[in-house]
Specification:
The protein is of the alpha+beta class. It folds into 3 domains: 227 residues, Aminohydrolase, N-terminal nucleophile (Ntn) domain (Glutamine Phosphoribosylpyrophosphate, subunit 1, domain 1, 4-Layer Sandwich), CATH 3.60.20; 225 residues, 3-Layer(aba) Sandwich (Rossmann fold), CATH 3.40.50; 67 residues, no CATH class. Helices cover 46% and strands 14% of the residues. It is built from 29 helices and 17 strands. It starts with a strand and ends with a helix.
Length: 651
């Protein structure tokens, strides 16, 4: 895993000036690649690029970047891994290509030489962000992997285009306008992240996942990118070619595909391990890894002093059964207090998923023993693991059946009590109905349901369910607007998709790349750790989309296929428990150890200084959260304080 930055501009700088500009851009991302660095410029064409290397495969100087192709036509920088490079190398060697080392970097360049950029990219299996200068065509190609595991940002103004793995590189470039995009801020205060292609800055963008962008003229507006792989296309093809096999055949094919995805992600010339929560996704991945390893896989888990958030015992039980070499760590409110000042440095664009804290901790501790870690991320989105899919389908159907008047009455009744009052009521009822006692955040869920019922279309209802922070963020950002995005595209896609499939598609298009994968990339790279994700191999995803719903959700049980694979390897009792998720007690921390930090950032003076939020509305939200009967959630306050901390650091 590495990091890069570069620019394309009018050819007005000398080679030395161009070199210095690129050096300044890669200086802030040394954490992404502490092993090596390189800079290449072509001042005659206004091109420059720099690279920071975390050496994982072929750690010799033959893996140094920027790297030039054999003919000299292509000069390329590359962040990520191409896992099928041995197969591609064999094919290229049979056609006459020769290689000096054994890195995937050389294979990628040889593929560009042999097949051209447009035809080569769809053949890569892996995670990658790539910038390629074609000296023959005099154009810059930028590309990003299918699910957006690796980031790629762009900034453009007349005569200058900069690009890089993190926004901080662009901020350090020759020019950068730090004006905030109010629509991006509005989306962040709804979802806790900024959906692509927007960024928090008005003039900066994210290259969309699975897209290729070709730039020929730095003085012209940025051209449109084009997809080399599209989830919508995958879904359309799956509808015309569904899987028709038996249960046993589906399980066997899942084992083959996920097993191969795990195997190729275990290739590294450095120590490797895996994250293990004890849940279905990570346990399945680790079980398949252990079957393909000649020695115990090193596994890691993180827990909390708060028992209702702690999964370390379950993880330890699974690790013992599988025979892994297991380590576990703990996170307390005091640990969080020590970590939060670093959040704006790791996240140079606001991101307020609270699991960023335990994710950072497990990455930091794992990095003491390994340089590569394998993760179970993606199973919920690909195989239908979220409870909201089942509950959301029922909600969407009943909401439409109730009609406008019925929804208004139901919404009013559910929203009549505060979340805290709901928790007390349902807690008391738990003595009569034990399942109610096991429902976490019941009051918040009742209010989410009430808010969703205020809307009249399935897309708007699901947007409300995904509004993790504020239901009406435009009250905080008066100049902001809600803009269409992945939810609208998913629910507007033609075909016979059900509500669950549309919710899954929406999550795969936005929540997965712009929240979960962005979070993992930033915190893992902050400690120079590479994280690989087998369940998001695009071949696994394409297979999952061909599966009829019964292989994902059956008799109310989520992730049916993954569970059957896991039950063959781990006793059901070790992994059968209510879904917990990788979360933290953020409400308690904000009212406890983190309260002074939040008080400072949400003071009237601090809010006025940032100038981005309505001071009165933000202050009212903070007071409401502190009220025992308040309706504002900890997630909403976490979004506010993270934005304020980010603004103080970067603006």
């Amino acid at each position: 895993m590495c990091g890069f930055a570069g620019l394309l501009s009018r050819p007005t700088r000398s080679s030395a000036e161009q070199h210095d500009a690129v050096a300044r851009m890669i200086a802030p991302i040394v954490h992404r690649g502490p092993d090596d660095h390189g800079i290449w410029v072509d001042a005659d064409h206004g091109v420059g690029r720099g690279f920071r290397r975390l050496a994982l495969i072929d750690r010799s100087e033959r893996g140094h970047q920027p790297m030039r192709s054999a003919s000299g036509r292509f000069m390329r920088i590359f962040n990520g891994e191409v896992y099928n490079f041995p197969e591609l190398r064999a094919e290229l060697e049979a056609a006459g290509a020769r290689f000096a080392g054994h890195s995937d970097s050389e294979v990628m360049l040889a593929a560009f030489e042999a097949w051209g950029v447009e035809r080569a990219v769809p053949r890569f299996v892996g995670m990658f962000a790539v910038a390629v200068w074609d000296s023959t065509e005099r154009c810059l190609h930028l590309m990003r992997d299918r699910f957006g595991k690796k980031p790629l940002y762009l900034y453009a103004e007349p005569g200058l285009i900069t690009f890089g793995s993190e926004l901080k590189s662009l901020v350090a470039g020759p020019a950068f306008d730090r004006s905030i995009d109010p629509d991006a801020l509005t989306a962040y205060l709804r979802y806790l992240y900024v959906p692509a292609p927007r960024t928090i800055y008005r003039k900066a963008t994210k290259l969309l996942a699975g897209h290729l962008l070709t730039i020929r003229d730095a003085t012209a507006p940025l051209p449109a990118s084009r997809p080399f792989w599209s989830l919508e296309d995958v879904v359309r093809r799956a509808q015309t070619d569904p899987f028709t096999g038996s249960d046993a055949e589906a399980i066997a094919e899942g084992e083959r595909l996920i097993g191969e995805a795990a195997r190729c992600r275990m290739v590294a010339d450095v120590p490797l391990g895996a994250f293990l929560s004890g849940g279905v996704d990570s346990s399945t991945v680790v079980a398949l890894m252990q079957e393909r390893s000649t020695q115990p896989v090193r596994t890691f888990s993180v827990g909390f002093d708060e028992a209702d958030y702690d999964e370390t015992q379950q993880a330890a039980d699974v690790a013992k059964h599988l025979g892994t070499a297991h380590s576990q760590f703990r996170l307390t409110g005091d640990d969080a207090l020590r970590l939060v000042p670093e959040l704006p440095t790791w996240f140079d664009e606001p991101l307020a998923d609270p699991s960023q804290l335990p994710t950072f901790l497990i990455c930091r501790e794992a990095r003491r023993e390994v340089i590569v870690a394998v993760s179970g991320d993606g199973g919920d989105e690909i195989f239908g693991g979220y409870n909201r899919y089942v509950q959301g389908e029922s909600l969407l159907a009943r909401g439409q059946h109730l009609g406008g008047a019925g929804r208004a009455v139901a919404s009013g009744l559910l929203g009549a009590m505060s979340p805290t009052a709901w928790d007390r009521t349902l807690g008391a009822a738990g003595s009569l109905v034990p399942t109610l006692r096991r429902t976490k955040h019941a009051g918040d869920k009742m209010h989410k349901l009430a808010n969703a019922l205020r809307h009249d279309t399935p897309a708007h209802m699901y947007r409300s369910l995904l509004s993790a922070a504020f239901q009406e963020p435009t009250r905080l950002v008066p100049s902001g607007h809600d803009v269409p995005g992945g939810i609208d595209r998913a629910f507007g896609l033609a075909g016979s998709l059900g509500s669950i499939e549309r919710m899954m598609l929406a999550d795969q298009m936005e929540y997965l790349p712009d929240d979960l994968l962005a979070k993992v990339d930033r915190v893992s790279m902050a400690v120079s750790l590479e994280v690989r994700v087998p369940l998001l191999d695009h071949r696994v995803a394409e297979f999952a989309w061909r599966l009829p719903r019964k292989f994902k959700i059956r008799d109310g049980e989520t992730k049916w296929l993954l569970r059957q694979m896991l039950y063959k390897r781990v006793p059901r009792a070790l992994v059968e428990r209510p879904k917990m998720g990788f979360s933290v007690p953020i409400d308690r921390w904000l009212r406890g150890a983190l309260r002074p930090w939040a008080e400072d950032l949400l003071s009237a003076e601090a809010l006025a200084a940032s100038g981005a939020l309505d001071v009165a509305v933000a202050r009212a939200a903070w007071r409401d959260f502190l009220d025992a009967n308040g309706r504002v959630t900890g997630m909403a306050i976490w979004a506010l304080v993270n934005f304020q901390a980010w603004h103080r650091r970067w603006c």
